[in-house]
Specification:
Layout: E1 15-17, E2 24-26, E3 31-32, E4 38-39, E5 43-47, E6 54-56, E7 61-65, E8 72-74, E9 81-83, E10 90-92, E11 99-101, E12 108-110, E13 117-121, E14 127-129, E15 138-142, E16 149-154, E17 157-162, E18 168-173, E19 185-188
Parallel strand pairs: 5-7, 6-8, 7-9, 8-10, 9-11, 10-12, 11-13, 12-14, 13-15, 14-18, 15-19
Antiparallel strand pairs: 1-2, 3-4, 16-17, 17-18
Length: about 190
Amino acid sequence: MLERADRNLTPEDIRTKIQDTALSINEIPGLVQADGSVLEAFVTEEIGSEFTDFIHGTDSADNLYGNEGGDVLIGRGGHDYLVGGDGIDILFGGNGNDVLDGGKDNDILNGGKGADRFVFRSGDGQDKILDYRDGEDFFALEKLTFEDLTITQADYSTLIEVTNTQESLAQLFGTQADLIGVEDFIVLV
């Protein structure tokens, strides 16, 4: 369904929904600051399907959701929020301080540049993190605390496991286990 817009249409007026596809774009209007200036904000939201989706973000902030299927999500620039959902997904944040949540199954996560957060919860599988940077990136735990975890060295990677169940949450490539401590974790409430 298409509607003709008048000539005075501004980006703040845009709300687009494309039916029967994996794309929806929602703009968040700018914020008016105390001095009257406008801080422009544009967030793109793209939602995948039950199939394999290849979703690219923009140079602004993006919310990308893969849903089902083995998806590839690429945030590019901006502070992005990437959620793989069900299936074996590949998430790449790009530039910016990104949040990467692989969801169910064994996913591959690469935050790219910026201070990124990798989300873990029990029952979601073992995610492979390709570019963890100690002192810059963080692990966000849902329904877990640092005290619930065991961190061990395995050849050239580090394993993060739930102590009581020995469930492996993550494998960090090129990271020494002795660099990972409580200061690298935040708990989601």
